[in-house]
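Recap from last week: sequence in, structure out.
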Amino acid sequence: MVLFEIMEQDLINILKYAYQYFYKENNVITDLIYLLEKNADNERKILNFVNVIKTLLNSHFEYNQIIDSDIGDFLNSILQTSYSKKSKYKDIYNKLTAKYNALKYYVEMKTFTDLHVLKHTIYTVNSLTDKNLKQLCLLGIQNFFINSFNNLPKFYYILILLYTYINENKYYDIDWDVKLFKILAIKPFYFRIYNNLITALNFIFNNKNEFLFYRIYFAINSKDAYGNLNHYTELQKNKSHFNLLNNLLDILNEVKYKLYKINK
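Predicted structure tokens:
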């Protein structure tokens, strides 16, 4: 049940964040959260999970995805960087830190809000042509909202990284998949069974191992990644339970696309 509980908590979290930022007048979401959080036995919890997802997939959700063009242009002006030969911003850590502090300053000055930054982040995710990066964002979207050490949500860092990848990646020699994974993950780590994370990511996105997609999900969303990956491996011995878990994760991801308006 530990793997199912990760997905169940993921569903609860994405509903809560979607309600908080986009759908505050939607009582359907609050009712579904209540249903998921009710005490129930394991079988009932799985049924509730499935019923909630069915309701979500059969419901209409719409929010205004567009932010004022002046705010969008201003955000881009903050994110944009001029690179000289000796620019300190060629170190991605310096770039992330400086731009994060700039965004934080203007939020505190009430020039724009968390919601503006979140919408711009989702717009940037949808602008990605790299399917690896977009898929990672989908798998770990609940972690967009975890506060960083400076008390702003992680989606600030994600916006900076993705903007830099799309517009300025020629100035950096880094593995973008690995960097995004580290920002998204509850606990950054590397897979033991591969030389490094980028090898593992390439495996899944090249469809060389259909189950690695699910492994990456549990790695991003686990506090005990190694332990839960071992649980996932052990579960393969029970084919019906293994297939059920994978199918539940597939439909959970469909809900994420729908709620957050992420393009496939």
